[in-house]
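Let us begin with a simple case.
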Amino acid sequence: MTTATVRTSETPSTAGQAWTPRLWGALIVLCAAIFLDALDISMVGVALPSIGSDLHLSTSALQWVVSGYVLGYGGLLLLGGRAADLLGRRRVFLVALGVFGAASLLGGLVDDGGLLIAARFLKGVSAAFTAPAGLSIITTTFAEGPARNRALSIYTTCGASGFSLGLVLSGLLTSVGWRWTFLMPVPVALIALLFAIRLLPRPVEERVKGGYDVLGAITGTATVLLLVFTVTEAQGAGWLSLRTLGSLVVVIALAAAFLAIESRTAHPLVRLGIFRNGAVSRANLIAFTMTGAYGGFQFIATLYLQHLLGWSALEMALGLLPAGAFVALSAPFIGPIVDRFGTGRLLPVGVLSLTAAFALFLRLDEHSSYPVLVLPSMLLLGVGFALAFPSVNIAATDGVADEEQGLASGLVNTAIQVGTAVVLAGATAMITAGSAGGDSPQAQLDGYRPALVFVTAVALLGFLIALVGALLDRRRKSITVPVADYDYPSAGLDTTRAEVLTKR
């Protein structure tokens, strides 16, 4: 283990101080980056048939156009978050954003399927560094409280907009040509990079003795990479195949080694004590289930609308627009709502709205109409993501020390990506098993319905976790004793005891 001298803190804003144009500009730059990161997860969905036809890719190869990005993104997020803490958040963000733009350009120009998948993996790797670095820049720049909640609400709503608008933009761009789904992010990333160099706060120079947890980085990254790879490939290899089971055994062994290393090293990649914060742990579980269920639902809805109902790419874009538009338009209002009601109350409401959206889609049949089936689910999805996505990110970083904000950001983003990969793999397996390889409308429906039940159940689990968190939060507040409510002599309490009760 080596000792490193690093820059670890950004210039914080003062609580209650008016935001300057420069501060607004920095936030917009960070929002542009997270929008692109989230957008790339879903934007190639509608373009896949065109990509397969043009580049002569098999179905399994096409899966890797999507999975390659998720593998790079989800597999390296923990390393990206810790690198931001150790090497400097601004530096990591700028380099990774530049790589993202270059990989986007490469993906739009290649004529080989293998190079396209490699470009997607590289984009995922770069996003694994921009996402935690950007989130931790916000949490260390804006003072904890209303200012940070407002900034995080705007930032994470932009991320949610990227998730929900990905299919919309994919449909519009694919109607012109699939390569535009890769080329569109290039100028946005370049402009964001130029403004980021000028606007992002420069770190305060601090000489801090830290260390590089090399073994933890190797075992942790390998664990997540192999887990995502295993669940992605399980559909083709078989869940009970020797290959899949052997990979899972290796994942468990790597995870055990990682935990043992992190519990003993002086400067761990992931300080295990962070999970003693119940709110942070619950937020990561909610992020896993919420975004995992949405990823599975998005895949099912795309197949259903395109293959069974025969929607075109443009019809897909217009049909899914209400969800994305609601999330995008709600960005300015979420911060005040979070301040008023708190993440503990908003998370159950938001995740319940998502669960209801998936449950309503179970009414699908061979001739479902847009107003009856699709529109209600899209509106509920918009409400759910607008409330839950900012709230879960705030909860996942709230109360975490500045020097571990990159770690906390990496953890929640890892939960999002791994959740998407795991639930999507499960939904895909159920579609294949339910349809039994048939192409008739009834065979397709027999595959979609159990997969929809599965993603609804996963979302329901997230709701229950959020509900438990809300009840615990309410219980904790109910036993808080305000100091001003006591006449200390008559109440039999001294000042010190009252202060302790107030802080519980």
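The second case is a distinct protein. As before, the sequence precedes its structure tokens.
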Amino acid sequence: MAETTTRKAPVEVVVGILMKEDGDVLLGQRPDGKPYAGYWEFPGGKVEPGESLFEALRRELIEELGVEILDGEPWCCVEHVYPHAHVRLHFFICRQWRGEPQSLEGQAFAWQGHVAVEPLLPATIPLIEWLNRLRWKTDQV
């Protein structure tokens, strides 16, 4: 008899990379009480049942930062297995939004040119080099 394994589907998560005209991007620090508290990440969160990815992204950025995104260009999708969750991360580049980011969940946040905050959430680390190439249209980082 063939052995079957039950594997949970990954949790669908949207991630917004708010990018200014000069290429600076917004990172937030995970608040106390969440897994990986103190780690830096791009803002976003779980997709609720019945939501499109873009609808979830709009909702999450309003809830988390008080900004309404006006555009979101799908950028990449990455799966990552953390000790507490298996996630599928849908990244969007957002260049236009309404409002100024606020700390609505008690998190620190920082605009970054060359990303210098640490520690970064593990799923974010491999994407920084790709993002730098996109931001500055170069093969060198």
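The helical segments are 53-65, 125-136. Strands lie at 11-18, 25-29, 40-41, 44-46, 68-69, 73-81, 86-94, 97-98, 109-112.
Keep these points in mind for the review questions at the end of the chapter.
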